[in-house]
């Protein structure tokens, strides 16, 4: 049985004696020894990250469980996807280096972004070290800049700990404040319906921020892990820049997956409440598939995605609608697949984000309405989180998310408003969506 410290010593010796002399960023990869795979099971990787003292940290689990990563340390950072793309362009097509992180919901500016301040920018970075499991293959990966002293990497690796410290969620909600409150929400939705009836836009996605004040500071990894363990069929990711400062999300929706030039995106719009009873859930799903308002809402998103991809793809295929069943809600779902002329993630992100599922249609009119009427800054909410590499990339839409600041958690939930939307029904919808995370702090699972 090999100890983690001995394993790290072996890795340090390898990268010291086999230094890459090219003037570039490269990656050292090694399969994690079987004894360490047993000591550090994939399900416990939040606990491994919890034992580290280095930041930033990023955790990622794919919604189907086939791709999980726990990364830490920062080799280099990018504040906009265009900067990350410039580095991707220098890497070999076969490079396994991933750039991880978040994109704010609008790419208005090239402003620097932090986990507290996501407007207009990105927090994307190449980590120093990763645990990564793809299709059951577990590797330890080290990213190295050959232009910098190798001892810098060695010192970082020797600071890593091999034990698992399970993050425990031990806090309760003291107070909750909605922005807007219920009266303000009713006014906001009525105003949106009036604007839609007047022809100013076809759809707008209004949102609510809920500020939860807690009895004690929450460990971000504990909150994220609690969500992962009960909100199934969702992506789970978290960016932490300090022990008490992080953004996490558990969304069901993929923004896009790119494999070479093949692009897969989706429309997840149209919602009905979930039910633990299978028969009632199936009846609700049948209703959702037949409901004109929800079917129209989903179609608007599909049409918008197809229009945004015009000129960038040489084929498009849209699937029939199905229903995705989650813990608290069910959604209408359709996939859109295409072949890109030029597989560039900077172009994909700026075409697809923000989608009509989180902003509205037409985009310009919907964004103008939200800037004027929504009483808070969305920042990372409704943006995207994930990773990009030369050959493959995947980002999820940052919904069902939370901004964590010590003993305060900000939750976000939105609803698509179209002609005929009812303010009370939309309030009920965002209550159901927010419950996916809020109930983790209230004991209701």
From TrEMBL:
Its cofactor is Mg(2+). The active site is at residues 203, 253. It is an enzyme of class 5 (isomerase). Residues 182-433 form the Chorismate-utilising enzyme C-terminal domain. Keywords: Isomerase, Magnesium, Menaquinone biosynthesis, Metal-binding. SUPFAM superfamilies: ADC synthase (SSF56322). Mg(2+) binds at residues 297, 429. GO terms for biological process: menaquinone biosynthetic process. GO terms for molecular function: isochorismate synthase activity; magnesium ion binding. The keyword Repressor does not apply. Catalyzes the conversion of chorismate to isochorismate. Belongs to the isochorismate synthase family. This is Isochorismate synthase MenF. It comes from Morganella psychrotolerans. The gene is menF.
